Amino acid sequence: MLEDEQLPQLLLDLPSFFSFRPISFLACDGVHVLGLTTNGKVVTWGRGTSGQLGHEDMVSNFKPKHVKSLESLVITHVSVGWNHFGFVSDTGVKYL
Predict the structure, then answer these.
(1) CA atoms of 90 and 30, how far apart (whole Å)
(2) pLDDT tens, 48-91?
């Protein structure tokens, strides 16, 4: 489970969750984390009780999980809001 920390924490075990490219960018707010991989794929984790993680359910995840609905896209830009994520694809299409 995630705990509050007073100092930055090294995520040593993060790569063990992935069978894909490394994460090149992280965006987060108080309860969500979004990772963008070097090949434009998206993973999210954190509170998902309103479906805001994009996993087609309303469940919190404490380990990174692919956003399957974006798998066919190459995502180049991401943003995180309190209850949503925003994405821009390599073709300039925007998603919320």
Answers:
(1) 28
(2) 888 888 888 999 988 888 899 999 999 999 999 887 889 999 99
